[in-house]
Amino acid sequence: MRERFFRKLVRGTLPLLVWAAHFAASYVLVAAQCSPAGFAPGNPHRLPLALMTLVALALCAALAWHGRHTLSGGNEETALLDWAAALTALLALAGIAWTSVPLWFVDSCA
Q1: pLDDT tens digits, residue range 14-40?
Q2: Helix or strand or coil: residue 81?
Q3: Is the pTM above the cut of 0.90?
Q4: Helix (H, G, I), strand (E, B) or coil at 44
Q5: In angstroms, rounded to a whole number, what is the distance separating the alpha carbons of residues 37 and 13?
Q6: For residues 15 and 89, is the Cβ–Cβ distance under 8 A?
Q7: SS3 29
Q8: Is the separation of the CB atoms in 85 and 38 below 8 Å?
Q9: What is d(CA 68, CA 74) in angstroms, rounded to the nearest whole number?
Q10: Main-chain phi, psi angles of 49, to 5 degrees
Q11: H or E stretch including 51?
């Protein structure tokens, strides 16, 4: 009986990794747009940020949906990993939504 530690670790933390990737990519994209030699000098474009946010939210929503199906048919055998995967998906959804709030208020580079 072989436990697949890293597979279980990624399964439980994948939504948080998506949130972290979205957070980092958002800051990198805005910094690249706002730098003097940026690929799009001037005001940051909201469309790439909005698309990135929608993709991250869709990924976490899919993970939460998968976790809901796992937990709805659950019994006493439902593992802690199943609960962790479902709840971290909900946490990541809230985190991505909260992280993307400044996206709607960015008017120009400081």
Answers
A1: 999 999 999 999 888 888 877 777 666
A2: helix
A3: no
A4: coil
A5: 36
A6: yes
A7: helix
A8: no
A9: 10
A10: -65, -40
A11: helix 46-72
